Amino acid sequence: MGDRILAKQFVDDAGSAFIEVIRRADRPVRLQEIRAVLVDAGVPVDDVDRQWKRLRPLFRTHPHVSKPQPALYEWSPAAHSAKVSLDALVAYAGRRGPAWLIGAFADNVTDNLVRSAIAGPRSQISWTEQREQEKAALVAGIVGYAAQLASAGAAAPDLVSWLLDEAGRRRLTPIGRAGERTLFDGDVHEAVGASNLDAGADVRVVRPGFTWSGGGRPVVVARAVVKLP
Hints:
By secondary structure, this protein is an alpha+beta fold. The protein has helices spanning about 5-10, 15-25, 30-40, 45-60, 80-90, 100-115, 125-150, 155-170; strands at about 65, 75, 170-175, 180-185, 190, 200-205, 210, 220, 225.
């Protein structure tokens, strides 16, 4: 992951960026080292410190983060037990928790279920790994087609049009369009540069989100990123 991508990830979801830095380290790391990586990537040091103070209590509950010493954080391939993650999910039921942490709990429970259900050579492939392979294959196809369009002299709108067509074929419906103004809805919008926006606040769409209707009823799979005009 390049510095620019890591910095953008921090803006979009600081918790997942901290976890990514811990995961990428090949040893236990302290806040000073985590901060240095993010600052080198272009994140303001004050933003790093503010978000760390807010999120630090959650890191110790992540199924893949261990603390060999009080001030050290280390990525552990061996996750917590499924029961620990399930108990955490139950504790979060009825209240909104950070997506990066809820997703980690859910993935850990699912991985354990899949390992129990699958026999043979596939028993060593977790559901999370399989899902990551499928996402990588999808991204590879998109990048390949984008390169093909670019080599043919196509402009950016051509690529966007193709991507929207592909999204439609996969039963994805856009939430908003980049640049348009709309009313804030926390169920489908994720605000950047502001916190605790009131429902109905005037916002501008930075990046469209998507709902997926492949399971019958529409489900928000990616919230639209919005900001104040």
